[in-house]
Amino acid sequence: MIWSGICWCTVGFSIGNERLGAAVEVSRIQWADDDAVAFPAADGTTFKEFGQRWPFNLCGVWYFLGLIRLLGQGRPELAAQAFGAALRFGLALRCVLNAIGTEDLETAHLCREAEVARLSALARHDPPQALVAFEQILGNPGGLDPVTLEAHLQRARSRLFVDLVNLECYAAAKEVIGSQQLPIVEPMTLDGTSAAFAWGLYLLNNEGETATASAVLARARQAAAAMLSSHPDDHETTRLFAKPKSRGWQHWRGMTRRKPLWRSNNFRAIQAGSTRRP
User: Fold this and answer.
1) Which of 25, 160, 164, 269 is least surrounded by Cβ atoms within 10 Å, i.e. has the fewest?
2) Could you tell me the pLDDT band of residue 217, with boundaries at 50, 70 and 90?
């Protein structure tokens, strides 16, 4: 099981080059139960002993396995396990490295990516557990410095909120943000526009704040139009924004098979310029 992970060094390139089918073939390698794998940490294991037992690239191996399970196979429950294994291995490796006075910034970055991706997988499979996982991030298991931790928390909160709104899990989404407002960051990126759109839908469908929702959704539309104007050949942005009645919103933040929120009566009223909630 362990050395078969070497094959995974090509997985990221396969996804980037739209060769997901080939990557999925690789994923058929028989792996042990991800949740059952225990990595040594803070138990006196030396760097040499750790390397003799585990390949140092396993954090990336499990992370890309999780992406394939989530995006290629539609198995969020298995994806969450893989992302969790990536996180545990990365933390164990960093612990061993820290003991000899060094750090692996790439692994540290992958750990943060795995935490956020695990939230997305859990949101699709087990929303209450996604809230538990988010609370664990608040505990700073990776030992991040305050500035990095705050940026990581904001990104994790925003991503989880978008996923939960897209899945119409409004009660869970409300727990993620509490009494706070989801800030609209300027200038808007694709992720920022996604968050703004989700915030608008949440205000409209859960809070009944039609006027505020209309303003937020209008700002999201403006940002979308600006991105399309400056990047007319960006097929991803075109697909996500130019055809709101399509399944583009699902591909934007979901990969869910549920009815897209673009088609809700409330959103159609906003599109038509109505100030009255249906």
Assistant:
1) 25
2) confident
- What average pLDDT does the structure give for the chain? 75
Assess contact for 229 and 174: CB atoms under 8 A. no
d(CA 206, CA 183): 18
Neighbours of 84 (CB within 10 A): 21
- For residues 116 and 6, what is the distance between their CA atoms, to the nearest angstrom? 24
Structure tokens at 66: 């999780």
pLDDT digits (tens, 9 = 90+) for 67-112: 999 999 999 999 999 999 999 999 999 999 998 999 999 999 999 9
| Distant-in-sequence, close-in-space partners of 101: CB < 8 Å, separation ≥ 6 | none
C-alpha 72/C-alpha 69 separation (Å) is: 6
Which ranges constitute the DSSP H helices of the chain? 11-16, 20-26, 47-53, 58-67, 76-99, 105-125, 127-138, 146-166, 170-177, 190-202, 210-230, 235-241, 248-253, 265-271
**Tokens 């009566």 appear where?**
265
